[in-house]
């Protein structure tokens, strides 16, 4: 579905909740810049995440840890300027909320004030309960993130599937219930078994959004650059690649170079 109408109805957290209630799946993608966000929004996704995966995708870091709150605000404000319909959610980056709930609140407020985004996302369960509650009490909608939480990669040691064992699965379910009870509007479930996603999604009232978490989540999210095939070589099992932009872009740029070197660009019509 494309959205061409001039009086576009904004997607809100309430609309996301209603979608779960009537069993309509929620489509979500990441975006980090103005041009891409405009394309993603016009195509009709309900939710755009300015993920800290910008650290990998946009800046070339190996992990999400180095990205700063200023850099997240830069990406988020660029996205917000382009988006007319989707709900824009921004990741609180590593180190901006783990210290204490006051720090978490300050970071969330900075993101909301300086980027114009609509909600924030934090990784973790019980460990960050107080911070999430403080942010919620300031009127800022919060999305949780459980399962594989990339900001803790050095604790996990690998990017493999999480919560396969009973103890971790039980904690994840409890964390999801807690995030629901305290008032989060949604929770991302990353790289966990499908059966656990189903159990969580059926046990909580707020929508789950899965990535590598199987078909039972209330919505799905992927990293835009992976969906478009921009990053060659990243092909995890959970990823469905819908285009091969790397090859398409390479061909276009190769042709441009050929035309410049062959002196066929610019021609007369392309000159003043
Ligand atoms: O940073 C990100 O892109 C994310 C998604 C993978 C959910 O957190």
UniProtKB/TrEMBL annotation:
A Gene Ontology BP annotation from the UniProt entry: methylation
GO cellular component, one term: cytoplasm
GO molecular-function terms, A-Z: 3-methyl-2-oxobutanoate hydroxymethyltransferase activity; magnesium ion binding; methyltransferase activity
Residues the record lists as binding Mg(2+): 52, 91, 123
First-tier enzyme category under EC: transferase
Reaction it catalyzes: (6R)-5,10-methylene-5,6,7,8-tetrahydrofolate + 3-methyl-2-oxobutanoate + H2O = 2-dehydropantoate + (6S)-5,6,7,8-tetrahydrofolate
UniProt pathway: Cofactor biosynthesis; (R)-pantothenate biosynthesis; (R)-pantoate from 3-methyl-2-oxobutanoate: step 1/2
InterPro entries for this protein: Pantoate_hydroxy_MeTrfase, Pyrv/PenolPyrv_kinase-like_dom, Pyrv_kinase-like_dom_sf
Cofactor: record remark: Binds 1 Mg(2+) ion per subunit.
EC number(s) reported in the record: 2.1.2.11
Localization per Swiss-Prot or TrEMBL: Cytoplasm
Reported cofactor(s): Mg(2+)
Binding-site positions, 3-methyl-2-oxobutanoate: 52-53, 91, 121
Active-site residues from the entry: 190
HAMAP family membership: PanB
Description of how the protein assembles with itself and partners: Homodecamer; pentamer of dimers.
Protein's name according to its UniProt entry: 3-methyl-2-oxobutanoate hydroxymethyltransferase
Source organism of the structure: Dyadobacter koreensis
Gene name linked to the record: panB
